[in-house]
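Ops channel
N.P.: pipeline sanity check, posting one input/output pair.
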């Protein structure tokens, strides 16, 4: 039976703005308070989805969240009508209003951790929504995320859904941004690779000093247990605290894996040789041949990696066995990074092609191609069980483009977030979107 790795890209929400909410994310903080363009952001994301579909990859769409999150504001003591809640928050606590309007759910690499059926004890695809409790504006996402994923992957015969881990620091979970999977074929048993920034209980693991380590070892271990993964199919690795302090807030900013290959920076991990040996040995037991592609610091510094988002790329398998790297335009704009990529693709190695995409609106808020997609490995039967409304087709692309043109503003500033009309616009847009994607009632305003 044929299997696929399907990329479900996050659709950028109507309130896309540069709030500078993510401490530790250099791009997010450096562009804080600039004017954003939600319409352009959504269209840029859709263009990438269509391009991958046109290349022959199976591509899906993951809906954004309802914003402003009036329910979250009410839980913090604001009251009255929805308009009065927004007005009161704008007057008394602008940072909370900005947080409640964040469109960060677009970066669906943080939506959940996914384990394919070939790896799990019960033979189903498992999803655990990420609690994202390190940042308030992201910690409010997982209830809606769970409902959306449940509407996309509804067949309990094939799919299992787990609630987010306890929302405490000891179980900080950032989803697939710190998780990847190695395998000979997407339908065969593989090795799941969990990367953590710190341990909540074991002092032997060093922690960063400047920026927070968002993923804990204990959260990764809990997800592996929930998904029924065997010990010989899991590898845990610690991210280098020094690179976290340089702005590498997730592993997908410093490494990306696919198939049998890991593409990573020389300074990405602690105990790198031991980790690579474990990955190689465990993948070999599953019939795979692990391939490590190390980018030397002498050719690309961590600073250049963060600025260009070289590793926040999509590494995709092509029909001839080679791999394609999807990178943001910022890689082409960085002379050292682009020179490295030209050398890499001309060397006759595994990565032989690079495609560049303009994702400036997302990049300025700290998210590149890898942030925008959640990978789900599915066999033919499981793919047929996915809600067909969320699988990208040429007609769906056209419909979503028209939907964005109809509902999205082309300019957004902090002052615009205080406009009660914005909430009405967003709800109208999302109500229509759930019909387009055949999701049913997944948003609080549709349920309450």
């Amino acid at each position: 039976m044929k299997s696929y790795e399907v990329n479900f890209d996050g659709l950028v929400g109507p309130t896309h703005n540069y709030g500078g909410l993510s401490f530790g994310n250099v791009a997010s903080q450096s562009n804080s308070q600039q004017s954003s363009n939600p319409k352009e952001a959504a269209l840029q994301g859709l263009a990438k989805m269509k391009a991958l579909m046109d290349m022959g990859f199976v591509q899906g769409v993951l809906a954004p969240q309802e914003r402003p999150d009036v329910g979250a504001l009410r839980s913090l003591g604001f009251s009255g009508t929805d308009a009065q809640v927004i007005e009161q928050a704008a007057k008394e606590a602008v940072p909370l209003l900005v947080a409640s309007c964040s469109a960060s759910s677009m970066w669906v690499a943080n939506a959940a951790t996914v384990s394919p059926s070939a790896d799990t004890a019960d033979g189903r695809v498992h999803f655990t929504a990420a609690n994202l409790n390190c940042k308030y504006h992201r910690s409010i996402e997982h209830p809606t995320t769970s409902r959306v994923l449940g509407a996309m992957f509804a067949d309990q015969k094939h799919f299992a859904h787990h609630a987010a881990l306890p929302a405490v620091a000891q179980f900080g979970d950032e989803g697939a941004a710190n998780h990847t999977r190695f395998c000979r074929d997407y339908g065969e048993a593989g090795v799941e690779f969990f990367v953590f920034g710190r341990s909540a209980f074991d002092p032997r693991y060093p922690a960063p000093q400047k920026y927070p380590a968002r993923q804990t070892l204990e959260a990764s271990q809990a997800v592996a247990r929930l998904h029924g993964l065997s010990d010989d199919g899991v590898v845990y690795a610690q991210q280098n605290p020094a690179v976290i302090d340089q702005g590498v807030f997730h592993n997908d900013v410093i490494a990306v894996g696919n198939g049998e290959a890991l593409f990573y920076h020389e300074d990405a991990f602690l105990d790198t040789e031991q980790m690579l040996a474990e990955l190689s040995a465990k993948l070999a037991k599953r019939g795979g041949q692990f391939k490590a592609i190390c980018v030397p610091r002498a050719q690309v510094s961590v600073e250049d990696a963060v600025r260009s988002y070289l590793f926040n790329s999509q590494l995709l398998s092509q029909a001839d066995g080679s791999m394609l790297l999807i990178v943001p335009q910022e890689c082409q704009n960085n002379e050292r990074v682009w020179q490295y990529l030209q050398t890499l693709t001309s060397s006759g190695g595994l990565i032989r092609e690079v495609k560049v995409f303009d994702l400036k609106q997302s990049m300025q808020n700290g998210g590149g191609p890898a942030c925008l997609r959640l990978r789900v490995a599915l066999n033919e039967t499981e793919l047929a069980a996915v809600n067909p409304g969320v699988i990208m087709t040429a007609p769906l692309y056209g419909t979503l483009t028209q939907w964005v043109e109809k509902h999205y503003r082309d300019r957004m500033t902090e002052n615009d977030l205080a406009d009660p009309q914005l909430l009405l616009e967003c709800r109208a847009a999302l109500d229509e979107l759930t019909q387009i994607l055949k999701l049913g009632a997944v948003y609080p305003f549709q349920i309450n």
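N.P.: looks fine end to end. DSSP finds 18 helices and 15 strands in the chain.
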